[in-house]
């Protein structure tokens, strides 16, 4: 697939450039919205979950620099959420182009992924600036792992996009189901609470199903980002990281296989 994409690298560059340009067209702040969005959500979640609900503490144990904790998990989730939601319509919104000329249709989900990466990567600077502002130590040695984690999340995100973009061609309900699932999925990830709240819970129900919680690849990935930017020492065990890598690869090839198989019928349906 990637070798085939290289044949269309000029087209891919053009589509990514167009996607980024259109997204911020007629916007006063333009590209800076990619930074303002996570900052705004950080403020909202901090007010709601820390000041009002007091979720940042349990049993007298407080999470230091809670806005930084929120931001370090919110940025990767925002990338995943925006990419998957936009990816749902990656094929259906380009129906006229698909009918006119042939090129690998994988290029549309990949375009959405890369355009969101353009917004995602600079947002990491916000975490470093927030760490400096709050006087939180920056773990420069752990930052070396960032490209590997970013690659892992990008592969998982693309796998989800392949699946939902193709299924949405045949069943337009997929777009609405995806939006609903993404809202629920967020609360099943350690964004507003550390993963230790789940693993060390006093609730017998939560304790019983804690391992099922880690079957969620995004829960593990966001915990890994917390380890890098926040220095969370109560991260996931190595076995769950290995599981996440393996399940990401498996899901990628399954979703790509479904994409290729159904791709033959897209011209008839779209």
Automatic annotation (TrEMBL):
Residue ranges annotated for the ABC transmembrane type-2 domain, each copy included: 29-262
Membrane-traversing stretches: 31-54, 66-87, 107-132, 144-170, 176-198, 240-259
Membrane topology: Multi-pass membrane protein
GO molecular function: ABC-type transporter activity
A GO cellular-component term linked to this record: plasma membrane
Swiss-Prot/TrEMBL keywords: Cell inner membrane, Cell membrane, Membrane, Transmembrane, Transmembrane helix, Transport
Listed GO biological process terms: lipopolysaccharide transport
Pfam families: ABC2_membrane
Family according to the record: Belongs to the ABC-2 integral membrane protein family.
Annotated protein name in UniProt: Transport permease protein
Organism of derivation: Planifilum fulgidum
Taxonomy of the source species: Bacteria, Bacillati, Bacillota, Bacilli, Bacillales
